[in-house]
């Protein structure tokens, strides 16, 4: 078992013949993808359960004894060798940790892992789901491109990490994630000087915009008497457009490139964005993102409100040309 990055022998693949009090049974090389679902438990009969429970008690005793305290939270990293039914063993340790720590009413966070070449199961157990998830996010950030799968279930964060502890970086990274996740949140009522909340930013953006209703936007798009061009711009991401539908005829410009597409001075502008009197009506799903986007451009709306107003998904711009039965717009995609 390793509870501190300093002063303890670090586990490496070449040291697999050694044994510590955190290991049990015989080493079994297991190809393939270990089970995960928070880490899942096997439903088959398990003759090693009593052994795991006794070893888990020993591990928890030592882990809590040697743990660090970070701003009132007890933290630790526990590494064991890869064995058969290893995921069940991590769950057994997590359950024993909860049994021991809950009566003490102390915040805790422990990272449990079975490191080996291939996909290694990692389980983060904690006194709160938020704390476990916070640590999990930091672990994913540390192990970019190496997290094969992750999940948050029953207050525990589980993951499969490729080739865990095959370098000296890995154990130190797990400790670093645990230490930083355990830090107490800052007081939201005492923000840095000059900062603004998202509510304040949104309020300021809307105060300097002309907000129009979906019906007003539809009428303006249909009005041939206006002296300036008008376009409807849908800034929703692709996932929302697939889920809720499209407004055929609207320009699809996702938020991250909006300013570049509508700046007449920009080489990457759209062909329509060649005038400063272009009237841009920005639409998002619920009129929040479009408020911020429109602060950089013009007017805004919301797709949900557009639908609730009973307006068509297929927008046909009024024309002086002879009427035909054919539609130039694209059907709604659902």
Order of helices and strands: HEEHEEHEEHHHEHEHEHEH
Shape: elongated
- The average pLDDT is 77
Number of strands: 10
* Class of secondary structure makeup: alpha/beta
User: Strands across the major sheet, in which order?
Assistant: 1-2-3-4-6-5
Q: Which value, in Å, is the CA radius of gyration?
A: 28 Å
Percent of sequence in beta strands: 15-25%
The helix fraction, in percent, is 25-40%
N/C terminus separation:
53 Å
Poorly predicted sequence stretches spanning 5 or more consecutive residues: 1-38, 315-334
Number of distinct helices: 10
Task: Specify the biggest β-sheet.
Answer: 6 strands, mixed
Features of the shown structure:
334 residues, alpha/beta, 4-stranded parallel β-sheet, 10 helices, 31% helix, elongated, disordered N terminus, disordered C terminus
Descriptive notes:
The chain has 334 residues and is of the alpha/beta class. Helix content is 31%, strand content 16%. The protein contains 10 helices and 10 strands. It has a 6-stranded mixed sheet, sandwiched between helices. Strands 8-7-9-10 form a 4-stranded parallel sheet, with helices on both faces. α3 runs antiparallel to α4. The longest helix has 17 residues.
Give a short synopsis of this structure:
This protein has helices at 49-65, 86-101, 129-142, 169-181, 198-207, 214-222, 238-244, 258-262, 289-296, 303-308; strands spanning 68-70, 73-79, 108-113, 119-126, 147-153, 156-162, 230-234, 251-252, 279-284, 299-302.
